């Protein structure tokens, strides 16, 4: 997949690169994969429609390929089964994207939607809250 993507990048075939990046994102959604998809989609001048479909996928699980305005061509690589299965809404990824895009209302929306967690997941929540929520009382002197 990397070799084909690099070839398409050298050709400046940004829609094809973005389609490959979309497959990578859907296989394992993360902020890093989102950023790579954003970059290639912006190069192809298709980012707004891609972003809308990707966020809908994270929120509902609805495939972006079934979205009416999905602008990317069919990827030259096939989607393997996701390496990470999360049920929608994929709150952690949505929170990270909202933080990256500096959208506090979205951060709060998704943070409040989370179910109470225990163990490692709760530790992750605490870490994210301390790192990205400076208004949190625990971070005040």
Report on the architecture of this protein.
- With 141 residues, the protein is mainly alpha-helical.
- It folds into two domains: 1-70, no CATH class; 89-141, no CATH class.
- Helices cover 60% and strands 0% of the residues.
- The longest helix is centred in the first third of the chain and has 14 residues, at 14-27.
- The termini are far apart.
- Mean pLDDT is 85; it is low at 137-141.
Shape call? elongated
> Are there runs of 5+ residues with pLDDT below 50, and where?
137-141
Radius of gyration of CA atoms, rounded to a whole number: 17 Å
How helix-rich are the residues, as a percent range? 55-70%
Mean pLDDT: 85
Largest sheet: none
Structural class: mainly alpha
What is the number of strand segments?
0
**What percent of residues are in strands?**
under 5%
Number of domains: 2
Helix and strand pattern: HHHHHHH
Distance between the termini: 49 Å
Count of DSSP H/I helices: 7
What's a concise summary of this model?
It contains seven helices and no strands. It is mostly helical.
SSE arrangement:
Blueprint: H1 2-10, H2 14-27, H3 31-43, H4 47-60, H5 91-100, H6 104-113, H7 119-132
Helix pairs in contact: 1-2, 2-3, 3-4, 5-6
Based on the model shown, name its key terms.
7 helices; 60% helix; mainly alpha; 2 domains; 141 residues
